[in-house]
Sequence to fold (92 residues):
Amino acid sequence: MRPLLMVRAGAREEAAEALRRLPDPPKDLLLEAIWCIMAQASCELGEPSMISKALAALEPARGERAAGSGVVDLGDVDHYLRMLEAASAAAD
Fold:
């Protein structure tokens, strides 16, 4: 995901703008995996509106894995939810 790569390359402002412009992912097999990548970028950037949006989007997947196939597996959704909850609390 472009915003995550951008923030890790040090282009924070550009990454934040790119993250805010991202459309919601399609409701397909990669839905939770894409939201987890967006969650990671949101937390690394400290973007409160995107943190809230990702938290709401991932909450229904609590207890599941962020896996779209045998090739894509980002681990437990709960990991990302905890990260988002901590980032949300820190922003308050």
In short: The chain has one domain: 2-91. The beta strands are 65-67, 73-76. The helical segments are 2-8, 12-21, 31-45, 48-58, 77-91.
